[in-house]
Amino acid sequence: MTLTHNHDQIQATQAGSLPRTPELIAANAARRFDGDGFTLERTPEFEGLLTDAVVDLVQRQTDAGITIPGDGEYGKAMSYDVDYGAWWTYSFQRTAGLELTEFNPILASPVRSEPGNVRLTSFADRRDWTIFADAYQDPSSGIQIGKNATAFPSATGPLRYTGQAAIASDIANLKAGLNAAGASTGFLTALSPGSASRIGNEYYATEEEFIYAWADVLREEYQAIVDAGLVVQIDDPSIAENWDQINPEPSVEDYRKFTQIRVEALNYALRGLPEDQVRFHVCWGSWHGPHTTDIEFRHIVDLVLSINAGAYSFEAGNVRHEHEWTLWQDTTLPDGKLLIPGVVSHATNVVEHPELVAQRIERFASLVGPENVIAGTDCGLGGRLHPQIAAAKLQSLGAGARLASERLFSRV
Predict the structure, then answer these.
(1) pTM score, two decimals?
(2) 3-class secondary structure for the chain?
(3) Per-domain residue ranges for the chain?
(4) Can you give the residue ranges of the Cobalamin-independent methionine synthase MetE C-terminal/archaeal domain (predicted)?
(5) pLDDT digits (tens, 9 = 90+) for 179-208
């Protein structure tokens, strides 16, 4: 299973997370923690429920017109309806060298950066959250990030990948779903080293050493997915999102240097893996907030394109980033690469009309060629939208891709 260019239709996919079933959320909430306080036990009963849920989900995606489905990140624990962190916290379950400490990256004390010395502050001290503090602290504002399934540990020893059984389960479940639905290609998500390293570090001497330790750990997961014949999607909101987590705002030059280390570590982790089985997802954090301090995509698009992937997934369907489609008027898509712009957004409960979805697809097709565009979602819909609304958005995504296909490929 590889990423392929379009021949007679626009392919459609989604960015990873999809809403869990009530049964799966309840089963996750009922799981006990191991002695470390953050690793969730796995039981045969839970594994059976998980397999059935993934098989059903893949069928629902293909029924909606999604041609490249995923497992919805169902193997990444989510114990609450609203959870913006399952894409990240799952990695704690699959890595040795971590333990709970007093450090919490969400609520830690603020950290101040200075020119030439960029450092991440706590999540609660990010600039968008402080500018709109009243809104973020008002439970009726509609801004929420929910609750994570596990606590955040810190690195207190050498990191080592221990997720072999978990990723094998993810692979088997997705393959079972693909076989049952008759789908030819599917993808699983995996965390990037740069995003993984945003926890406490009490062991590694430098930040760069810590990031590369994560690269060695996560490479095992990437390799397992690729070896299984599936597509791996690297989830890395940190490439864009870190900008808002630096206080005060840095210069673009300093930020690019800070980010380059993370790009190089990811490419190190991806070394030798076939690019046509790798896609890269970048977003600006996904939470339902103002996002007035998001970095402009034009400042980092070349860094994104330097990542050794065959396709690039990014936000293009919400009101903060939709205008950036014009960036591709002056940005050359490297030969053989694909774009996966978000043409349906996680950021609103309003369901996009299929005609709007088609128009968004056609904008990108006019700039990089219809053969090079896969229609996607801005970010994961799971933990952010009600299941009924998310299902309607996938239906609209599939319908919009069909509309665009009729127009774009009838002209060829």
Answers:
(1) 0.96
(2) CCCCCCCCCCCEECCCCCCCCHHHHHHHHHCCECCCCCCECCCHHHHHHHHHHHHHHHHHHHHCCCCECECCCCCCCCCCCCECCHHHHHHHHHEEEEECCCCCCCCCCCCCCECCECCCCCHHHCHHHHHCHHHHCCCCCCCCCECCCCCCCEEEEEEEECCHHHHHHHHHHHHHHHHHHCCCCCEEEEECHHHHCCCEECCCCCHHHHHHHHHHHHHHHHHHHHHCCCEEEEECCHHHHHHHHCCCCCCHHHHHHHHHHHHHHHHHHHCCCCHHHEEEECCCCCCCCCCCCCCCHHHCHHHHHCCCCCEEEECCCCCCCHHHHHHHHCCCCCCCCEEEEEEECCCCCCCCCHHHHHHHHHHHHHHHCHHHECEEECCCCCCCCCHHHHHHHHHHHHHHHHHHHHHHHHCC
(3) 22-410
(4) 206-389
(5) 999 999 999 999 999 999 999 999 999 999
